[in-house]
């Protein structure tokens, strides 16, 4: 995945955020509102534009920092969608551990003391689960930072746990934020860069998992939930329900009949919010897989072989990340 494509995605997402904030429905509307000086009046009274916002909206060019700053003054909060660490994190270029720490500690400050020592708290299932339930842009960035950190340390358990959570948070963001305008491309970038690996290693992912279909199903279920009054429009409620739905769906046997959204929502209401906020696992997926395998064979030799396999898979993921980083090309904004 080239940096050119990612820069296009971020500019288009920024424009979508601006449209949502301003009410402008077209590129010309954005230009009239945010760059009125570029609208010229011809002698015959007709107006002409620079077409710059047309190019922004289609991701053909990127705005200069001064443009982003000027627009931010008119639409406060819009710059987050173009300046977010997200875009550097999902690219192939190497990201320094210090920068990963900044992203993670922004939403979980207590982890600062654990980062350099690679303390288990950094990748604990409870930490990752809490980010999953939070489900906003900052939480997603922290999860991707944990994935990148796992790549650099060849930590397969952390990679699987953080990727599985990030995959579902990405679905929520892609149907509930300005990222919806680039949903399919955004999810495909994430799939190619991170999530497809889950089909190659022990993980909760099924062989037929399709991120775009999952996002559409989530959107439909959230719409039903809001219409029925199961949830309000508050982000916390949407994120909590999305997390609960994913855990319910993937606790069901893969060969069983798919659960209908209405049935899941009825179960959610019946159990009550307090009970449906699932307690996080205290053991990550890889260790649970190891325990299941050992229980079935009760062989220390088999356990050592399995641990060697997990270690080798971690090294393979790390080598893959290094290869992608070596292929990356840094491009400047226009």
Question: In short, what is this structure?
Answer:
This protein has 334 residues and is mostly helical.
SSE topology:
Blueprint: H1 3-22, H2 27-34, E1 40-41, E2 47-48, H3 52-57, H4 65-74, H5 80-83, H6 86-89, H7 97-107, H8 112-115, H9 125-134, H10 137-153, H11 156-176, H12 183-193, H13 211-227, H14 235-249, H15 261-271, H16 273-276, H17 285-297, H18 300-327
Antiparallel strand pairs: 1-2
Helix pairs in contact: 7-10, 9-10, 9-11, 10-11, 10-18, 11-12, 11-13, 17-18
Give a quick set of tags describing it.
334 residues; mainly alpha; 2 domains; two-stranded antiparallel sheet; 2 strands; globular; disordered C terminus
Q: What do you see in this structure?
A:
This protein is an all-alpha fold and 334 residues long. It has 2 domains: 3-82, no CATH class; 84-194 and 283-334, no CATH class. The chain is built from 18 helices and 2 strands. It has a two-stranded antiparallel ribbon. The longest helix has 28 residues, at 300-327.
Q: Total number of helical segments?
A: 18
- So what's the overall shape? globular
Side-by-side strand order of the widest sheet: 1-2
Provide mean pLDDT, rounded. 85
What is the percent of helical residues?
Answer: 55-70%
- Largest beta sheet, briefly? 2 strands, antiparallel
Helix and strand string, N-terminal first?
A: HHEEHHHHHHHHHHHHHHHH
Task: Give the C-alpha Rg.
Answer: 22 Å
Q: N- to C-terminal separation?
A: 19 Å
- Low-pLDDT segments: 252-256, 328-334
Beta-strand proportion:
under 5%
- In total, the number of domains comes to 2
What class would the helix/strand composition place it in? mainly alpha
Q: What's the β-strand tally?
A: 2
């Amino acid at each position: 995945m080239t940096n050119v494509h990612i820069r296009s995605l971020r500019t288009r997402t920024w424009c979508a955020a601006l449209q949502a904030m301003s009410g402008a429905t077209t590129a010309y509307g954005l230009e009239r509102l945010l760059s009125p000086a570029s609208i010229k009046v011809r002698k015959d009274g007709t107006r002409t534009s620079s077409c710059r916002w047309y190019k922004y909206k289609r991701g053909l060019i990127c705005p200069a920092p001064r443009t982003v700053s000027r627009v931010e003054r008119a639409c406060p909060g819009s710059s987050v969608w173009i300046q977010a660490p997200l875009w550097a994190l999902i690219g192939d270029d190497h990201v320094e551990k210090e920068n990963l720490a900044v992203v993670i500690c922004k939403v979980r400050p207590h982890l600062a003391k654990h980062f350099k020592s690679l303390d288990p708290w950094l990748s604990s299932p409870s930490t990752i689960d809490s980010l999953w339930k939070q489900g906003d842009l900052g939480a997603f960035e922290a999860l991707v930072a944990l994935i990148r950190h796992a790549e650099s340390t060849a930590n397969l358990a952390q990679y699987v746990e953080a990727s599985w959570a990030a995959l579902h948070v990405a679905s929520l963001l892609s149907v509930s934020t300005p990222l919806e305008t680039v949903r399919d491309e955004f999810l495909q970038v994430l799939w190619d860069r991170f999530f497809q690996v889950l089909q190659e290693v022990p993980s909760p992912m099924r062989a037929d998992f399709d991120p775009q279909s999952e996002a559409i199903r989530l959107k439909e279920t959230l719409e039903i939930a809001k219409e029925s009054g199961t949830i309000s429009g508050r982000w916390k409620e949407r994120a909590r329900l999305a997390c609960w739905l994913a855990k319910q769906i993937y606790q069901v046997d893969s060969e069983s009949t798919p659960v209908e959204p209405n049935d899941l929502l009825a179960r959610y209401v019946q159990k009550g919010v307090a009970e449906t906020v699932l307690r996080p696992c205290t053991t990550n997926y890889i260790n649970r897989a190891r325990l299941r395998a050992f229980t079935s064979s009760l062989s220390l030799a088999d356990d050592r072989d399995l641990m060697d396999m997990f270690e080798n898979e971690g090294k393979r993921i790390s080598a893959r990340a290094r290869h992608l980083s070596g292929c990356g090309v840094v491009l400047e904004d226009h």
